[in-house]
Amino acid sequence: MAGNNLSPRQKMIGMMYLVLTALLALNISKEIVLAFVLINEGLEVTTENLNKKNKQTYSDFEFQEKQNPGKVRDYRVKALTIKRLSDEMEKYIEDLKKEIMGRADNLSKQKQDTITLEYVESKDENNIPAEIMIGSSSDGSSGKARELKNKINEYKSKIGAILKEVEQKTHIPAKINLGLETKDPALDKEGIKYTWETHFFGHFPLAPVITNLSKLQSDVRNAEADAINFLYSQISARDFKFDTLAAKVIPKSSYVVIGQEYEADVFVAAFSTTQNPQILIGQVDSVKHEMIGKADSITVERGVGKYIVKPTTEGPQKWGGLINVKSPDGTVKSYPFKAEYLSAKPSAVVSPEKMNVLYIGIPNPISVSVSGFAAEKIFPSISSGSLSGSRGKYTANVMTEGDATISVSAETEPGKKQNMGQFKFRVKKLPNPVAKIATKKGGPIGKAILSAQVGIVAEMENFEFEGVNFKVISFDMTIAGKGREPMFSSSRSNSFSSEMLGMFGKLRLADKVYFENIKAIGPGGDTRTLSPVSFVIN
User: Fold this and answer.
1) pTM exceeds 0.70, yes or no
2) What is the chain's mean pLDDT, rounded?
3) HEC secondary structure over 108-128
4) I need a labelling partner for 276 at 20 to 30 A (CA). Which of 170, 217, 519, 528 fits?
């Protein structure tokens, strides 16, 4: 088999294959032919294991390409080309095996596609294999063995061309023996000349012919493995070898308020603890990878350069430079880089989450933010009332009508705060609720419906805040009707009194019921007089 990394089991199968082939040449019994079934099964397992390993390598290629497309894509494309060529080659050999076994047992096309050597009845049949593989010629040139030989040579040639292209690009030799030799063997002891075709497929029983083909399939997958492993090794073959990895963020922020410092870590993806790179800041010639004019170097520690600058003007701020790294062979490689950040004047945003006013007596949710600052670095205060909360979410509680001002400052550096703006809000009382009975604000109502109610409810209509409640504390009721004396009653709660419920029992059609002097108390403790409600009994 091709390749040098064979397991003991694979080596054992190869040795048994050679021994049985020699015994078969001496016309050993049918039991020897049957032994080839075991060898064939071992070769098929080896081929399947190689397929699994190759599949993992292709998966590794895909993962690496996602990490670094520019570096990996060309190698992965070449690997996928090798996969396609190998799939086609193995399938061609598999089709030959199915054809030989199918014709020997006179199987239909459907059964031929599913048959395996173990279940072939004509394992010792030696005419059909020769007819298909050798044909009518004595050297096998008219059979499919010659076609197989040509396809193997073409397969090796195409893979060899791919490997050679990589060798020329990287100057790293592949040092791969693809195997799959198709040269004619040397003269035997009697001086008889055999071709590759007749040596492997001439006048052998079916079992060893199928085993020979299975061996070729295994050799194809082994050649594929050697080739794609070489390609995969090139992904990192010319990389620098570093002993430490640095996980840094560049920049720390891309938005800076004037007065703050812009800070960024400048680094290569990895670094050596034995040698720091040189990092230069300034204008770079993108073609020659050289600095243009004056260049400023920055301090580098453990492979990371710290660039700190305090902007003085608004707008986009562009900067860049070169990272010079000494490679293992002593040459210096230059890596240009560019970066950009935005500087702006201090700007705070304070926004009520419900309305553009603050209401007395209830908690008013407020959002506070300052561009370029973390929430824990922002400190708001209010001129009237109190402000509680943290990390951008606050609650304002106000007590008197008028205006309230929220001031915002931010910590620009430890122990130092900067004013970011002031925001004025109107402070108002809560709007009056609406008195309702049976969810109605007046109009026609049935006697039974009115009698079934508990009392009057004060409801906040179309108000943005949830959970804001008023409670009715007293009201007067008058019942009037045609041809009857008016009836009066009062309640000192939100409920109908027993006297009122008794009066409901005397209601007649078209009677009018008036609820007036309705008093309700709100969250702030103040008492409101609500609009009267009137109904007509229907």
Assistant:
1) no
2) 83
3) CHHHHCCCCHHHCCCCCCCCH
4) 170
